[in-house]
Structure prediction request, 460 residues.
Amino acid sequence: MAIQTINPTTNQVVQSFEEMTEPAIDAAVAQAATAFEAWKTTTYPHRAKLLRRVAAQLRAQKPALARLVTLEMGKLLAQAEGEIELSANIVDYYAEHGAAFLADQPLHPDHGTALVRHSPVGVLLGVEPWNFPFYQVARFAAPNLMIGNAVLVKHASSVPQCGIAIERLLREAGAPAGLYTNLLISGRRADALVTDLRIKGVSLTGSEAAGASVAAAAGQSLKKSVLELGGSDAFIVLEDADIDRTVDWAVVGRINNNGECCVAAKRLIAVEAVADEFLRKFTAKMAALRVGDPLDPAAELGPLSSEAAAAGLVEQVQRAVHNGATVVLGGQRVARPGAFMAPTILTDLTPANPVFCEELFGPVAAFFRVPDEAAAIALANDSPFGLGGSVFTRDVARGQRVADQLDTGMVFVNHPTWTQADLPFGGTKRSGYGRELAGLGIEEFVNKKLIRVSALIDPF
Ligand code: NAP
Prediction:
């Protein structure tokens, strides 16, 4: 895949980049390994100071960084600004709480003393996707720099300028050379890097295919991996939900980030008693969305990230229809240049339809009608994915009971699946393994080292 900025609003090539050569990659890994040896000896306050400067830089440069995100992947500008702010919050969060998360854990053996100490493991590789170019990197890099690890980031080939900007920002904030390195390489070259002996672990956010490939390379070389993969979150509407508010959240949950969220509300499941009202109101709101240039503050839905993404999604919808699904709204491209697709709603998507098990990555909602709560839970769980999910009901205790029965890594009651620095993020099943964010997210790439001190006695 060529490393290029192609503006999806126009499909024009803006800038092309040369991939790094093998010697350049080798030098970058060597520099990261050297940086790690020094960084691991620094104190938590020293590391926190760097992170706070990074967060301040993110905020200071927010307008320019947000425009870069919009240019490279088509996010609405206001949402791009929100992503930069969220990324700064994550970086600040680990600066503030990292030391407490990583403090020694005293143990209480029957004699002597013992503790668990959190030590860094070394140089890590992050393979990141284009859909949240700053947030995804922040949630990988911030906790790991706080631990004392050094990081290499192979960003998606479609957002090279975002990748370069993040590395520059780290250097401006005072990061020593090699502590954070952006690798301008395409995905097919990531696996070879994973097997490099100087790299101690890999975290990938992206598709199942990329995750399987990287995890296989990590397994072969006996290294830990964390995988944050695709999802097809259920959005369950029970008969006692506040329908008007629930419809508003369904629209946000489906089209936030132009529909390109791993935790988007992709499957809307309403119980029979409210299904007609929900579908009617949801369809009206989706139909009224203003599709347009993501730099225009009036636009509510921008383009998909690329021409290939838009063409692929239309093909998926056509395949769904060919296998029995019905298009209630949209289903086609928008008649204008760029990678735009109309807001779309599918019904009659049965388990026999091959698209039933696929992720719809864009403004396409699949609507399902079920007799009752039990059927809603069964349908929600009938998915290869297990990332997030949500349930809408006025009865919070009922919402929590439903949440207990969903086989996913995250469940939200009365809100679509969402993210913030202090909530752990991750999935089950084919959505991957491991967690990012919050306290759990800082535990993935640490050596939890036991240190045991006994009184010196005779062995027998
Ligand atoms: P993708 O193709 O898998 O790309 C993600 C990253 O993996 C890119 O840097 C890509 O590099 C790299 N890559 C691709 N093939 C690879 C391979 N064989 N070996 C190693 N690296 C490889 O993902 P995408 O389709 O663009 O992104 C959308 C997917 O990410 C969706 O499924 C979405 O749900 C998922 N996602 C998950 C989360 C989460 O937290 N669970 C968050 C965001 C997105 P190139 O760009 O150079 O190909």
In short: The mean pLDDT is 97. Residues 100 and 107 are 17 Å apart (CA to CA). The radius of gyration is 23 Å.
